[in-house]
Amino acid sequence: MYCELFSADRCHSCQWLDKPYPRQLADKQAALAGLLSAMPVEQWLAPVASLETAFRNKAKMVVSGSVERPLLGIVARNGQPLDLCACPLYPPTFGAVFDVLKVFIARAGLTPYNVARRRGELKFLLLTESHHNGAMMLRFVLRSDTKLAALRAQLPWLRARLPQLRVISVNLQPVHMAILEGDTEIILTDETALAERLNDVPLFIRPRGFFQTNPAIAARLYATARRWVGELAITSLWDLFCGVGGFGLHCAGPDIRLTGIEISAEAIASARQSAQLMGLGQVAFQALDSTRFARSRDDVPDLVLVNPPRRGIGAELCDYLDGMAPPYILYSSCQAESLARDLLTLPAYRIVKAQLFDMFAHTAHYETLVLLKRA
């Protein structure tokens, strides 16, 4: 992949862009194998490769420059803003949207926020596209509600030019720091969630909910989990750190009782909406802390599926799972270092299968899926 800003030594977001992609994939596989070297893996499956360009479904753009000439992108290491509207990681549909948004910023008088001067209102633009139907969600991150009325007044102009914007919201982030979002979300459209569909499973993305940024690889990851689980004789499944339910909903079926646990109420609302559309009866999604939920239960499911944030599931939950002794654990990890650390605290389990999914091409990051069986 060629990137003008990387070649000019101005943007380093893709740290590995100077490596040929096959070498990137091989280096990631070697790194993962090294991290898991203390734990024998019975079956390694081939890494799942990403597209090299246009694979992201989401752009997180820092807004800088002036209200008349806004820049959408990042702030470089030297403090200078870089416009990333032509970034080759974004799908081709994003460029035309960014062009209209720059005009909209001027029309609505949304002065870009300057961190050093603590002035301005518009901090970030967050744009997400549905892999399923091309519909989009747009979030404006503002310092305050001062410009909210002006933004609302210009929305008809914006929606007439970009009818694909189905969900539009404002997030208020008043802290004088480069923090992505605050606690207050104001929905400006009738639709409140972006409809997505990976494989045959309907999913919903809400403004403050997490969703994978590489939907093609996410679909492969979920399909693999469903295939692995389908090869096991299980009737009950816990999906901890379930997010919008992608893993659990792929693995659920008429003969499997699914319990999904996630701390985010927005994500649970999305998961419940998907389960209802799918007509699943033996499903319960709850907005709870995953570790506290597990420790409060006396029953033992046939399989515990975990998809934690980068920090991993932690020693407390590992110790509890090791003692609770479900026959299988399916662990999806976005941080292999924390995965390896967690696996060392599950001594009663062996790794049956492991596979790398390259969710983040041109960087050192990747997803890992491992199936553990009680020894």
Automatic annotation (TrEMBL):
Catalyzes the formation of 5-methyl-uridine at position 747 (m5U747) in 23S rRNA. SUPFAM superfamilies: S-adenosyl-L-methionine-dependent methyltransferases. PANTHER family: RNA M5U METHYLTRANSFERASE, TRNA (URACIL(54)-C(5))-METHYLTRANSFERASE. It comes from Acerihabitans arboris. It catalyses: uridine(747) in 23S rRNA + S-adenosyl-L-methionine = 5-methyluridine(747) in 23S rRNA + S-adenosyl-L-homocysteine + H(+). One of its GO terms (biological process) is rRNA base methylation. GO terms for molecular function: 4 iron, 4 sulfur cluster binding; iron ion binding; rRNA (uridine-C5-)-methyltransferase activity. The lineage of its organism: Bacteria, Pseudomonadati, Pseudomonadota, Gammaproteobacteria, Enterobacterales. [4Fe-4S] cluster binds at C3, C11, C14, C87. It comes from the Bacteria. Its EC number is 2.1.1.189. The keyword S-adenosyl-L-methionine applies. It is an enzyme of class 2 (transferase). Keywords: 4Fe-4S, Iron, Iron-sulfur, Metal-binding, Methyltransferase, rRNA processing, S-adenosyl-L-methionine, Transferase. S-adenosyl-L-methionine binds at Q212, F241, E262, N307. Belongs to the class I-like SAM-binding methyltransferase superfamily. RNA M5U methyltransferase family. RlmC subfamily. This is 23S rRNA (uracil(747)-C(5))-methyltransferase RlmC. The gene is rlmC. The active site is at C334.
